[in-house]
């Protein structure tokens, strides 16, 4: 996530906190408002018709206004004083609290699951080249055999960003400049088997015996 996204999230959160505090302070201060002073004539008129007249509208005192203005300036300066590292720590703490709330049965928020899925996809794209295995049936191998027997299929998976050489960078530049157009070339190393496992033998659905060589990978590397 970019820095401006961290800053935007932190700004929204701090603005919400500021609004809550200001509203609470205004609600508490509204109880201390003093009524408007009335003239003697209006006092006599109000005393003669006290049963039908409405109470005077409250007026906010200058001290309350100064207090609210000071509070706004304090929180504004607090918001501006946050550094990039502090914003990252704040977001990390919020994500951790959100994860704890979700594990305890909390409601799902729309913002953080998207960020979490993006991080998961990024981690999946940057996993190094490694050997993995999967138990499959012979029919699932796609080699034309029909059999219910299962084999352990080992394959290579991952990226090879650390194995990029000057050749790959130059080849990518030539392709972008359209100096190489028709040839099918790959401008980055691939995660491929460096050695293959032993031969695999099995019986098909018609009790015929087959042996397949170089089926599973034994060692993987970037080539």
UniProtKB/TrEMBL annotation:
InterPro entries: Cystine-knot_cytokine, GDNF_fam, TGF-b_C. It is found in: Secreted. It comes from the Eukaryota. Residues 118-223 form the TGF-beta family profile domain. Growth factor that supports the survival of sympathetic neurons in culture. May regulate the development and maintenance of the CNS. Involved in the development of the neural crest. Might control the size of non-neuronal cell population such as haemopoietic cells. Acts by binding to its coreceptor, GFRA2, leading to autophosphorylation and activation of the RET receptor. Heparan sulfate-binding is required for signaling. Belongs to the TGF-beta family. GDNF subfamily. This is Neurturin. It comes from Aptenodytes forsteri (Emperor penguin).
